[in-house]
Design a protein that fits this description.
mainly alpha, Nitroreductase, single chain, Nitroreductase-like
Length: 64
């Protein structure tokens, strides 16, 4: 990796702010369902089962 690339990655920052409250499974499922319906590159939209599995994985790692 070049020095430029290393510096670029090291200086990266995110302007997102997160609340301390956990996100409910219902909210995660709703967001994933909306994302599932949006257009994607090479027609690789996820189905409802995939969205549910992702929500379950998130909740098992982060908790409620």
């Amino acid at each position: 990796m070049t020095t430029f690339t290393t510096r670029l990655l090291a200086d990266r920052w995110s302007c997102r702010g997160f609340l301390p409250e956990p996100v409910s499974r219902e909210t995660i499922t709703q967001v994933l369902d909306l994302a599932r319906r949006s257009p994607s590159w090479c027609t690789s939209e996820m189905n409802r089962r995939q969205a549910s599995l992702i929500a379950d994985m998130y909740i098992s790692r982060v908790g409620r």
